[in-house]
Amino acid sequence: MRVIVHTGKGGVGKTSVSAATALRCAERGLKTIVLSTDTAHSLGDSLQVEIGPEPMEIYPNLWAQEVDARYSMDKYWGRIQKYMAALFTRQGVQDIVAEEVTILPGLEEGAHLLWINQYVQQGNYDVLIVDAAPTAETLRLLSLPDVTRWWFDRVLTLTRGAAKILRPIGRVLGRGESSIPEPDAWDDVANLFATLDKVRQLLTDPSVASIRLVVNPERMVI
User: Fold this and answer.
1) Cα 117-123-129 angle, rounded to 5 deg
2) For the chain, what is the total number of helices (H) and then of strands (E)?
3) Could you tell me which residue, 203 or 187, shows the higher pLDDT?
4) Nearest residue to 30 via CA among 52, 63, 54
């Protein structure tokens, strides 16, 4: 599978190039999926079709998807976030504060990486084309595993310790244990971070992926 990421300054034509590349690959008989990770989606407009948060076949050999940040966060992080927020609430933290603390830094961008990993692991496509956000946001995306690792080491350590204390108390009182995750739930979180790091390695491997900078002949853009 080949991964092609188009990025560049806003307004230079990243989406147009991504759409054209995807159509050309599909015409050549390659099973292609084009994925928009820009918050200001315009891929559907370029392809003149309505695209949703899950992949859909729009032409022969061509699938398209516009990543929805909220949908993806719930898909990949929602269950664990609810568990962790419940733990903080039990320790006297206000509900709204607990919810804010358990939002993983950069998770919106991280969801994009998780979609990419899913398609690479499944191997159902020959080409994955990413219509990425502007350059600065794409660079931050590649540093996301380091940010999440910092969060993981601090916040998750606190919640895991709280779970060890609260679980036996919940058994004695006969209530509340259902909101306390079992140890394997924390393994799921660790696997999530490992996946983010793996995708970064994939995107920086020239034998698998290429990041293509889209520009136009203007001094401001260059």
Assistant:
1) 65
2) 8, 6
3) 203
4) 63
The count of C-alpha atoms lying within 13 angstroms of the C-alpha of 46, restricted to the half-sphere facing its C-beta, is: 22
**Which tens digits make up the pLDDT trace of 153-199?**
666 665 555 555 445 544 444 444 445 555 555 666 677 777 877 88
Closest CA to 112 of 128, 90, 88: 128
Q: Which of 132, 130, 73 is nearest to 102 (CA)?
A: 73
- Nearest alpha carbon to residue 36 among 143, 200, 22, 210: 22
Give the pLDDT confidence score for residue 130 in this predicted structure: 94
Distance CA 51, CA 49 (A): 6
The domain 2-213 having CATH identifier 3.40.50.300: the answer here is: yes
Strand order in the sheet with 32-36: 56-59, 62-66, 32-36, 127-131, 2-7, 209-213
Q: What is the pTM of this model?
A: 0.72
C-beta separation of 209 from 4 below 8 A: yes
- The pLDDT tens digits for 100-141 are 555 665 566 667 778 888 999 999 999 999 998 786 666 666
- What percent of the chain stands above pLDDT 70? 57
> Residue ranges of the domains in the chain?
2-213
Torsion sign (Cα): 178, 76, 185, 160: negative
